[in-house]
Every structure is written in C-alpha cells, then in structure tokens.
Amino acid sequence: xxxxxxxxxxxxxxxxxxxxxxxxxxxxxxxxxxxxxxxxxxxxxxxxxxxxxxxxxxxxxxxxxxxxxxxxxxxxxxxxxxxxxxxxxxxxxxxxxxxxxxxxxxxxxxxxxxxxxxxxxxxxxxxxxxxxxxxxxxxxxxxxxxxxxxxxxxxxxxxxxxxxxxxxxxxxxxxxxxxxxxxxxxx
Length: 187
Fold this sequence. Notes:
Elements: H1 12-19, E1 25-26, E2 30-33, H2 40-48, H3 61-77, E3 81-87, E4 90-98, E5 106-112, H4 121-135, E6 141-145, H5 150-158, E7 162-167, E8 170-174, H6 180-185
Parallel strand pairs: 5-6
Antiparallel strand pairs: 1-2, 2-3, 3-4, 4-5, 6-8, 7-8
Helix pairs in contact: 2-3
Protein name: Protein N-acetyltransferase, RimJ/RimL family
Domain N-acetyltransferase: 30-178
Pfam families: Acetyltransf_3
C-alpha cells in the first residue's frame, strides 16, 4: 500500500479551514476533533491489531486506508464521521459518530489505543459523542459490538445502551434518545 499523502499540498489550507467548521467536543480531560492525515498512523496500528477483525480477518493496509477515508469523508458527505480523541494534545483513539454502509441507524463506535485503555477515556469520549449525536435529533442511535468483546459490552451498558438485536454477527445495542440524567433533572 502507498502511504497517505503527507507532502505539503497546495490545498492544505483549504483542508485546515474545512476542519475548523466541524464539531469539536471537549471533556474534562479530552478533546475530540476532526481527523488529520497524521492520525492515520494510530488508526492503522489499531486496525492492524488482531483484536480489530473485520469479518473474521485482520484487514490489509488498503482496507484500513479505505476505512479511515470513509470515516473522514462522512463529515463532508453526510455531516457525520469520526472524531480523533486527544489527551494532552496527543491522539489516543477514535470515536465514530455516524453512518456507514449496512448500518441500521446512526452509530456510536470507539477505538482506544491499548496504552490509553483503563483510564476512562473510552467512556468519557463516548459520552461526549453520544451527547453530540442526541443533539442532532436522530430516530435511533446504536453500537455494534462483537459478542465476545466484554469490555465494549460493559461500556455500552454503562452508556445506557441495551441489546436490541443482531446484524451480521454483531450485537446491536440501542441508546435512549435523551440522556436519562438530563430527563431526571427537568422539573
């Protein structure tokens, strides 16, 4: 596979300006921002790991690049996509908040680097992305989780998701469209 273009391009200023129009989510410790081409190195590492199987096989570099560009292109094509999760300005993972081919509804997905796991980053980032998705007014928000991925199943449950079916071997979890905590605070 060819490496992504990282040479200075004449249109780089256009890309940088476009990214400033996309949502940026801030939490107590994290910043969720639009991906940059330099984020691909982390994305490739995460999606090359045996734990990142697609359809029972680890994807090749071309498939990983295609997935990365699909997630990024969603911002321009549909107004949804992937956030790069940054801690102390360094990328530590990704949260997907959008739709891709075959999805039943808008999807919340999360991928945190192994060295950044067990610090609450996935929960913190996913909570911010879920609030963002809810603010868009979708009919349904789901996560797709491999049945044997106990950590993701626990995270989805903590976020308020409940199992509602299966799609292509994955468990489908649906989220309430309003944050239950926000509902309780209303008079």
